[in-house]
Specification:
Radius of gyration: 30 Å
Strand content: under 5%
Largest sheet: 2 strands, antiparallel
Structural class: mainly alpha
Number of helices: 36
Low-confidence stretches: 1-20
Length: 629
């Protein structure tokens, strides 16, 4: 905010000395950063605004000037801003003036600064930069509210309050992530994706705005819902279920034998490559969606009925236990003594020939090593002597038949291959299915599947999966020495780190607040609208990020960010600023008669005043103890 205030003296000529223009005893003489600023005493900050606004130049920032006196948990907005900036300056061994001088140094990169400003304004208005001020009214509150930033300000305030209420314990995993040796790998893997040797990944990186927009808009469409969730947005409803409780750590713990096995990682990556070479990878979404569109008997599913997908997972859940029983079938007896029926069923599926008939009764017969028929299976169920095999189980078992439907053939072949790749962990696969059923995650997940299956955007993502799991398809000339592209192990490490019980305990509350807030999804809707447009500055964000990373391939800003988050003197006042309703209102309010800060920035860029403003800001270098730019 202080840097914005410094933009008020646009009436000065570049040759003028800043302090030569000051009147003795005026507000400008009262504003001198070289002797420091007292936290909590906003007199000098108000003087700074009055100085810079003598001719009404920065009047749109008046709301921020008023907000300086807004209350925070530890004082007021002005005090929190000064405390945060002072603490940052202290970390780097700089004065507050030196910190601002470093910020002003960024103004030298005019081309990149303008690109970032254009990107930021696009998110403010959820419209291409070229339309802001022409097709989109800059000073309309409706325009601001329709963007992504204003609703996100509300969500950010709620999340900040949650973090402060919890004693900021969430900082520990955030700091650990920023300082992790994996962090640079993830950053470079993302920014270098457009240059990936693999054409599918390069295509995804080139068209990421359209892909993301398409999928966000698809999941917001409730027209094809089988079992509508609370909001009708399948992505929101699914994420709400995931972050609602401790299900994620439970699932990660159950899957640990696979996640902890490097050989399983390699086998999975090889399976993905095999599916891609067989031409089935991009067909898996449609094949899986078929199971979410029919019931276990193959009839179109009706609202309220279980889908074949739900029934299939429930079969594995119900059978995931030892089974021992004896049934008198008149001419013979069925004697069962298995360690785990679900494992036996999965092993039977893995041994299937996809070119021959597949049916659930036959799979169960193979698992039990007994030639079952539908009639015999009904007798077993009616006998009540086999605790697993009851009427519900028999009905659900027919979901296996759906794998033989022509629409599901790619899924059957892929499933056989996957079970073969994970043959040492079939019991873990059964446990994962059981946990998914118990957490009731299958139903919301299948709503997402129904929304995204068959879309070209989904195909684009699936086609890029081999490159995601095989670093050799992504390593070009751009990776710095000693930095490797992320691989399956990196993905697994991230999942395990997030799902670790102690970590999830501190991550879950702010994530639940984020996902549960209506303004978050207003922002998502606005973002989808922006990303769906062509010719946006946002589409070039990976290029701009690449420029930032190339400036120092060691990415020292990761460590600087970790230091700032870890430092209570920086993090607490910063969170209090985000929590402040006065700040959010000052930033997110405007009108034609009384423009706000965000429209002011848009006006500066659109009118061409920005270049003059940037030239003027360099005059503050001598005052701050820096050198002229």
């Amino acid at each position: 905010m202080l840097v914005l205030l410094l933009g008020g003296c646009v009436s000065l000529e570049p040759a003028d000395d800043w302090q030569d223009a000051l009147e003795p005893g005026g507000p400008c003489r009262a504003f001198d950063l070289t002797d420091g600023v007292v936290a909590g005493d906003n007199t000098e900050l108000h003087a700074a605004f009055d100085c810079l606004n003598r001719q009404g130049t920065v009047q749109p920032l008046a709301r921020l000037d008023v907000a300086l006196d807004g209350a925070t948990r530890s004082g007021n907005v002005g005090g929190a801003a000064v405390s945060a900036l002072s603490a940052l300056a202290g970390q780097e061994g700089l004065s507050l003036a030196g910190l601002l001088d470093g910020g002003l140094g960024l103004l030298d990169e005019r081309e990149h600064l303008d690109a970032w400003l254009a990107i930021g304004l696009e998110w403010v208005y959820a419209a291409p930069a070229g339309e802001i001020g022409s097709g989109v009214s800059i000073h309309s509150q409706t325009s601001l509210d329709a963007g992504a930033v204003v609703p996100l300000l509300t969500t950010a305030g709620r999340v900040a309050a949650q973090v402060l209420d919890d004693g900021m314990v969430v900082r520990e995993p955030v700091v650990a992530a920023l300082r992790s040796a994996e962090a640079p790998r993830w950053v470079w893997s993302v920014v270098l994706a457009p240059d990936a040797p693999d054409p599918s990944l390069a295509a995804l990186a080139a068209d990421w705005p359209g892909v993301v927009a398409d999928l966000l808009q698809a999941t917001a469409d409730s027209g094809n819902d089988h079992a509508p969730g609370p909001t009708g947005n399948s992505l929101r409803d699914s994420l709400s279920v995931v972050v609602a409780a401790d299900g994620l750590p439970e699932l990660i713990g159950v899957a640990a034998p696979i996640l902890d096995d490097p050989h399983a990682h390699d086998a999975f990556a090889a399976w993905v490559e095999d599916e891609e070479e067989a031409g089935r990878l991009t067909a898996l979404d449609d094949a899986a969606a078929h199971l979410a569109q029919v019931d276990a008997a193959g009839a179109p599913v009706q609202e309220g009925d279980d889908t074949a997908l739900v029934s299939l997972v429930r079969v594995l859940h119900d059978a995931n236990r030892p089974i021992e029983c004896r049934v008198d079938l008149l001419v013979t007896d069925l004697e069962v003594d298995l360690g785990n029926l679900a494992v036996a069923i999965l092993e039977a599926i893995a041994a299937l020939d996809p070119d021959t008939a597949v049916d659930g009764v036959g799979v169960l017969g193979a698992a039990l090593d007994f030639p079952l028929t539908d009639a015999l299976l009904d007798v077993v169920a009616d006998s009540g002597t086999c605790p697993v095999i009851d009427a519900q189980f028999v009905d659900d078992l027919h979901a296996v038949d759906r794998l033989a439907d022509p629409e599901a053939e790619p899924l059957l072949r892929a499933l056989i291959g996957l079970l073969g790749a994970l043959d040492d962990h079939i019991d873990t696969v059964a446990d994962v299915a059981t946990t998914l059923h118990e957490l009731a995650w299958v139903e919301p997940a299948q709503e997402v599947l129904l929304d995204v299956a068959g879309r070209s955007s989904t195909d684009t993502i699936l086609a890029a999966l081999p490159a995601v799991f095989d670093p050799d398809l992504r390593v070009g000339d751009g990776f710095p020495a000693g930095v490797r592209a992320v691989d399956v192990g990196s993905v697994v490490e991230l999942l395990v780190a997030v799902g670790e019980a102690d970590t999830w305990r501190v991550l879950q509350p702010p994530l639940a607040e984020l996902v549960g807030a209506d303004p978050t999804w207003d922002a998502v809707t606005a973002a989808a609208r922006l990303l769906a447009r062509e010719g946006t500055a946002t589409a070039g964000v990976l290029i701009e990020l690449r420029t930032v990373c190339d400036a120092d391939p060691a990415l020292p800003w990761l460590a600087l960010a970790a230091d700032a988050v870890e430092d209570d003197a920086v993090a607490r006042p910063a969170l209090e600023l985000v929590e402040s309703a006065a700040v959010r209102q000052a930033l997110g309010t405007t009108s034609l008669e009384d423009p706000g800060p965000l429209p002011w920035l848009a006006d500066l860029r659109r009118s061409g005043t920005l270049d003059l403003l940037l030239d003027t800001l360099t005059l503050f270098r001598p005052m701050l103890g820096g050198s002229d730019a």
